[in-house]
Amino acid sequence: MSTRIAFTEDQFTPLASSLGAGDETAAVVATSLVGAVATTVDTSVAGAEIPKVAGSITLLAQTVTPVPEGAYVERGPISLSISSSGWVPAFRAAVAHDQVPMFVHTHPRGLPEFSTYDDQVDVELANAAREFGAPYYAAIVVAGSLDAPQVAARLYDLGETFDAQAPQFVVVDAVRVAGAGLRLYLPPADAEELGDLANEEQMSVFDRQIRMLGPDGNRTLKHVRAAVIGGGGTGSAVSVQVARLGLGELVIVDDDVVTDPTPTRGHGITTGDVGRLKVDALGDHLDEIGLGTPVVRIDKPLNHPDALAAIAHSDVVFSCVDGHGARLILNRWAYAHIAPVVDVAVLVAPTEREDGGREVQIEQRVTWVAPGTACLLCRGRIDPGLAAAENLDPETRKALAGEGYVQAAETPQPAVVTLTTSVAALGATEFVLRLTGLGKTEATELLMRSHLSELRRNARPARRGCFCATAAFIGRGIRAPYLDLLGVLQ
Predict the structure, then answer these.
(1) For residue 305, which of 52, 215, 240, 437 sits 20 to 30 Å off, Cα-Cα?
(2) Whose CA is closest to 324, among 209, 207, 434, 230?
């Protein structure tokens, strides 16, 4: 079973900050469940079912309720006791809203591990959560210091096999914290992983990478689940780069086939691939790299249930699409799933002068889209009308375009491999630096105008009232109507 728990930076920072208080603190977190139970959207609204991703569970934090001061029966640097008034109302409220309750407490200057007393408490809390009607219960310990927090987490399945006397749990694979940065808090390496990390062959393969990122940074990359939407010039360049980092999983989504112009930009794609699905041509190349990253190929448009299910548990998604329709979906996905979307775009505008010469304007953009940052709509990077048209099925769009209700398909835009490759490298680098803590996170958009040798960064606030600044939308996962995009998803 693959498991994740996700927090926004705004939710996790106060929990980590309490490590400086000296005494243990606690909170109840209400989370949305993705992957094991509530894995479908309302078919009467969205028109289709999102299939389950076998063996994957992600809990998305929505509401953090600190234990009230008056509910602490005992509280010290290495001990904690709470009356039922400190957690029962929050547990009941979570279950009433079809959420999974999660208990979080701190070990200031301590270790990220559950004590024998914690084990006893979790048995009681798991039993209570089951009686209230929750399908799962999760527990987290946040330990260490404010500057270097560490996390341990476990998940209890409260289903038919649940043993009230000795409930079984699974260790959560990673706790994701997403915002202007991205962190994955991993459990201590087990014996098998320690053996892999010490393997001389593996060490030599990633030696140059480890020299920059360190062993911990390299280990983190091996646990990342990433998705790339679009397998063309930009998407193939991103895919090849992140696959060479040795990620834990890479999902490629593209329903198009290789055409005659594709090999001029597509990394790993040759003229012999013309007519093949892009995901197959690119996927074969990624497999041949031989670094062990599993590649999942989805030959469907992003708004298809299979594509949405395949990316549902991703830690990061790279948006490498030409139009606005998929961007509209991913723009909301980042906030609903508490995982960054790295939106990569190139716009080339050549013109001919009266004297017969040529000029060009080149706009290359990398936007980090995640909770706490302005979305693509706030930034004016999406045309809602075009997005709606692009997400229609081809026949409907053709008919409506003929009647003047929507825009017809756009003419293919100019593209050059050096431009798609360079912006892909910028996007992949932003991901690596933010994941490992080696880069600055104050700016959330990078703009490059190659024809002017100009590179700029910016950070913009969210517009008041936009979904990206609405607490109820953050972490809602697959709750119906999915992403609030009526009529867009197939």
Answers:
(1) 240
(2) 230
Instruction: Output the furthest CA–CA distance in the chain (Å, rounded).
Output: 86
Closest by CA to 224, choosing from 434, 10, 484, is: 434
Return the structure tokens found at 42.
């309302």
Per the CB < 8 A criterion, the answer to whether 343 and 428 are in contact is no
Distance (Å, rounded) from C-alpha 77 to C-alpha 58? 31
Residue 473: count of CB within 10 angstroms of its CB = 18
- Whole-number Å distance between alpha carbons of 184 and 234: 26
**Is the separation of the CB atoms in 281 and 238 below 8 Å?**
no
Q: Do residues 364 and 445 touch, judged by C-beta distance below 8 A?
A: no
483 closest CA partner among 13, 138, 23, 45: 45
pTM, entire model: 0.91
Q: What is the rounded CA–CA span in Å between residue 180 and residue 325?
A: 24
Q: Which two tokens stand for residue 61?
A: 């934090």
For residue 190, count CB atoms less than 10 angstroms from its CB and return exposed for 0-12, middle for 13-18, buried for 19 or more. exposed
Cβ-based neighbour number of residue 317 at 10 Å: 25
∠ CA 25-26-27 to the nearest 5 degrees? 145
Peptide bond into 481 cis (omega under 30): yes
CA dist 487 and 134 (Å) reads 31
Q: Report the alpha-carbon distance of residue 129 to residue 122 in Å, rounded.
A: 10
Q: In 286-410, which ranges are E strands?
A: 295-298, 316-319, 341-352, 358-369
Per-residue pLDDT of the chain (490 residues; tens, 9 = 90+): 689 999 999 999 999 999 988 899 999 999 999 985 333 333 233 333 333 344 799 999 999 999 999 999 999 898 889 999 999 999 999 999 999 999 999 999 999 999 999 999 999 999 999 999 999 999 999 999 988 999 999 999 999 999 999 899 999 999 999 999 999 999 987 767 666 666 655 668 899 999 999 999 999 999 999 999 999 999 999 999 999 999 999 999 999 999 999 999 999 999 999 999 999 999 999 999 999 899 999 999 999 999 999 999 999 999 999 888 899 999 999 999 999 999 999 999 888 888 888 889 999 999 999 999 999 999 999 987 777 667 765 554 444 334 443 344 455 678 899 999 999 999 999 999 999 999 999 999 999 999 999 999 999 989 999 999 999 999 999 998 999 987 677 6
Please tell me the distance from the alpha carbon of residue 280 to that of residue 288, in angstroms, as a whole number.
Answer: 12
Q: Can you spell out the DSSP letters for 81-108? A: EE-GGGTHHHHHHHHHTT-EEEEEEEEE
**Buried b or exposed e, range 229-267, using 16+ CB within 10 angstroms:** bbbbbbbbbbbbbbbebbbbbbbbbbeebbeeebbebbb
Residue 436: which residues within 8 A CB-CB, separation 6 or more? 213, 214, 217, 220
Whose tokens are 């329903």? That residue is 255
* Amino acid of residue 194: L
Secondary structure of residue 287 in the 3-state scheme: helix
